[in-house]
Design a protein that fits this description.
Layout lengths: L3 E2 L12 E7 L4 E2 L8 E8 L1 E6 L2 E6 L2 E5 L5 E4 L5 E8 L15 H4 L4 E4 L5 H17 L4 H19 L1 E3 L11 H13 L6 H8 L3 H12 L3 H19 L4 H7 L5 H12 L3 H7 L1
Parallel strand pairs: 1-3
Antiparallel strand pairs: 2-9, 4-7, 4-9, 5-6, 5-8, 7-10, 10-11
Helix pairs in contact: 2-3, 4-5, 7-9
Length: 280
């Protein structure tokens, strides 16, 4: 049976601190982005999903958590198979006054979308904490509202202690896979140097062949293609922001052969570096 969930824009399910765990399949359909008046915490317990938020797209995998601020447009898709996910709706005041100050980067933690990862060693602990919240909601007695706040505060304290905050993935990388992100960041930081696939793989802690395959799955292009893309991107910026010669710019951006640079530039931008500089 195909699951459907027509979501008008915006929707506001908040009637109190709430949590639910469900398994979604590729047949689940969410009709367009929606938003809430409260915070939403989205945790991938197993499987993977595609999360779109504020015109950014991320592939979330098991143990990933994304925090969604109020009135932030978002929606999910499940193209990778079954995905077990938990969502928690809450307001900032549910955390009390002390907890937010103890969370890393608390000044902007609740003002923007953030992704963090649960270490494998603490997966069961996090899952157990969520299970307690689900159980208490089912009990639903006079103590439940207070218990839910206590559990939510403990959950955030635990995440602040053991989880790793992920910064935005580099350009064109749509994954939270830590090795792929390490590779992409290594390229973004060292594109001007004569780096090889083996260098990138060593930085990511993977074999060159395995990294190349995982990288193509995440970025849609090969590792070397991504390196060239980043180098061209920086070269294009320098062409319009400096008066340096094309050869100097090519060398500075990691190209050892100026003719190869010109051919690659024409292929990406549809014109020569000289024409690009004139046009802009």
């Amino acid at each position: 049976m195909t699951n459907t969930h027509p979501s008008p824009e915006p929707v506001d399910p908040f009637t109190g601190l709430y949590a639910e765990t469900r398994v979604r399949t590729p047949g689940f359909i969410m009709y367009g982005p929606h938003c809430h008046s409260c915070y939403e915490l989205f945790y991938v317990e197993s499987g993977s999903c595609r999360f779109l938020i504020n015109n950014h797209m991320y592939d979330l995998h098991e143990r990933d958590i994304i925090l969604i601020p109020p009135l932030t447009l978002h929606y999910t898709r499940y193209p990778f198979g079954s995905c077990k996910r938990t969502i928690i709706f809450f307001r900032k005041e549910d955390l009390g006054t002390d907890v937010p100050e103890l969370i890393p980067q608390s000044l902007n933690f609740f003002s923007e979308s953030l992704i963090f990862q649960v270490p494998e060693a603490h997966r069961e602990q996090i899952n157990s904490w969520i299970a307690q919240m689900i159980t208490d909601l089912k009990i639903n007695d006079s103590r439940t509202p207070a218990m839910m706040k206590i559990l939510l505060q403990g959950f955030f304290m635990l995440c602040g202690r053991v989880c790793s905050l992920l910064h935005d993935p580099p350009v064109n990388i749509r994954t939270t896979n830590p090795q792929v992100l390490l590779a992409a960041r290594f390229i973004n930081e060292h594109y001007m140097q004569p780096i090889t696939t083996a260098d990138v793989a060593a930085a990511a802690g993977l074999s060159p062949n395995y990294l190349s395959r995982k990288f193509r799955e995440a970025a849609g292009i090969g590792l070397h293609e991504y390196l060239v893309f980043i180098r061209l991107d920086h070269a294009a910026l320098e062409l319009v922001s400096t008066d340096d010669t094309i050869t100097v710019i090519a060398l500075r951006c990691g190209f050892s052969d100026s003719n190869y640079f010109k051919d690659a530039f024409r292929k990406k931008y549809g014109m020569t570096p000289r024409s690009y500089r004139k046009a802009l």
